[in-house]
């Protein structure tokens, strides 16, 4: 340690102790890990603030274009290690804490995991925020400060139960409450036409109800601490805290009822939309944060530039899926109703500023809102949407006279059983660019959901293949591998993901492969300890760790993986003398609370685990572990320890996937279908270093069109037949033999997700993986090549592409 470093550590130590004493009112002797975490975070935060204020001011002074990323979800996870690492303070902090008798890891783990998102979409937004800061792009993230993030998953005998998540209980040291930054958000009421001059009538919206959106700002530090952006999350605050008169009359609960209803807007991430009340709350959330964001950025723009007409040159507004698509109507309302800008000019401003990312083709996930609900909640926006639609359909009719099919297909309003506003269509017409999230997905957008739109506006759809931040998913999550990479390639690899390319020749170096494998083994030992602690299950770190971690959904096909596990279990028992490759099947993921079939799949994984793990004849050749409560922090443990990465969705259904990138980066080989970004991963790592199986998108489509059923696949595969019979007859559920009858019947029947159709191909691909594993030099050569060749999947590359093609802002590395 040099003297400067020692001085830095001492200064940081002083700062931490001062925070502990004067901000938290705690003594050193009485402080727990949580107190040390809070004190440390506050001290670290101080190191960010000067930069933050400087760069924010400079952005305005220099008239730089601002990016606004609107997202209903930001799945950030823990922030201490991220901030400290980007500031280059990791070693300093460890040295600062050590003499206090405080362990960095204990402090780090005391932070709650901010789960303000469901999965891929929310985590992507968090990776993007980090890359925006690291590329010095001035940006705001706008979202909701949910009091309760994604539910905690508790598994009791394999059944999922949901419990509220409480990340704010002990305070959030990263955020700054800004009670003075608040915008009024209206709901309901009526619209009045008011003549403002001889030739101008304006529409004035009189909302029945107004809720305030209050800002909470979190600084987002980029790599090496050069740039700091703001994540601004809105919290709902009632204008009237209580009805004093009612309260004084003794109606204490009634006096608070309005407030509770209004503040419910920012209570919970993704409230159940099974009930009409749940759907309404979701729409209120969407409008709430979108309107707050637009009011905020318009006010900032007007303060600096004085005129909304220059908005498209000065701001880029990115809609993360359709959740904020109401922005299009809201920005029109702000321009036309509040600033008197003529419609056509307002439309040019709106379209010039906004762009939209699509994240799914699943019909059930494409948002639409019932017209009566929109009319009641947002009457002026509904008028504006009708008007946008009229202009849009006029233009379509002029270009394609007489084509009524086309008009119905591209209308913003879906007719039929109850009229609905199609948010994807609104987002498409109101944006200058629309992007998909992988090459395959963008291509399918053009051919399926936006086929007619694509013909009308062939330059609108572009592809921006997703990426992940290597700072979190390599440098922080896997310090062992990072150390090895820096030794091999020099520190440049920390700044430039593409520098990983230089690793490829080392795949031929046996000594390097051994070091690579040793890092993996150490990570697996840590995960094995976690599995033992959580599940009371011993697993051998030398076995192949075969990992499927993601939301539980039929299209992601955890079921295919479980059925293959059963087949393998049967095969091992039938021929115990063969040289089986020892495997640990690791699962983690949450099912939506109302998604019964997904919950049943979790239960099946548990039932299979109980039988397999308890069967002495399989010895240590096969173990099954389902880790509860999957979140970002758990992913950070599992990803560095994975050997095999399961990316096995039904082709055409996974828009991109990002876990596939995290796992490949950390040296796992992918077992995957030709879906989402797997296709591009294969292009880069090379066919010999990935296990591809199953039907292609076209083949899936053909089979579905032909109405093919699972029965044919079962006929053709005795192995599959046996597995299905075992599961449906209750071999794994002796307490309730009929438990999986219906689930198995779905495979025998329509088999929409092609579990039966892909089964043999999957089983065979798994045996190819076994063969590779047996040749350890071959396995580790492939593993090294995976790490070497996925540099392109850095979210820095993705963000640089958005910056160049969609936002038109400079990137400064
Ligand atoms: C939403 C819903 C909601 C209703 C029930 C079923 C369902 C199924 C899927 C979704 C997904 C919504 C959008 C989403 O999260 N997409 C994910 O975005 C990731 C980032 O682009 C991408 O990597 C994933 O492939 C994609 O599923």
UniProtKB/TrEMBL annotation:
GO MF term (any one): glycogen phosphorylase activity
InterPro entries: Glycg_phsphrylas, Glyco_trans_35, Pyridoxal_P_attach_site
E.C. number(s) listed in UniProt: 2.4.1.1
One term under GO cellular component: cytoplasm
Keyword tRNA processing: no
Cofactors, names only: pyridoxal 5'-phosphate
BP GO terms, sorted: glycogen catabolic process
Cytoplasm listed as a keyword: yes
Stored PROSITE patterns: PHOSPHORYLASE
Enzyme class of the recorded protein, top EC level: transferase
Positions of modified residues (N6-(pyridoxal phosphate)lysine): 662
Keywords annotated in UniProt: Allosteric enzyme, Carbohydrate metabolism, Cytoplasm, Glycosyltransferase, Pyridoxal phosphate, Transferase
Predominant location category: cytoplasm
Cellular localization per UniProt: Cytoplasm
Pfam families found in the cross-reference section: Phosphorylase
Record's catalysed reaction(s): [(1->4)-alpha-D-glucosyl](n) + phosphate = [(1->4)-alpha-D-glucosyl](n-1) + alpha-D-glucose 1-phosphate
Matching PANTHER family: GLYCOGEN PHOSPHORYLASE (PTHR11468), GLYCOGEN PHOSPHORYLASE, LIVER FORM (PTHR11468:SF3)
Family named by the database record: Belongs to the glycogen phosphorylase family.
Stated role: Phosphorylase is an important allosteric enzyme in carbohydrate metabolism. Enzymes from different sources differ in their regulatory mechanisms and in their natural substrates. However, all known phosphorylases share catalytic and structural properties.
Name of the protein this chain belongs to: Alpha-1,4 glucan phosphorylase
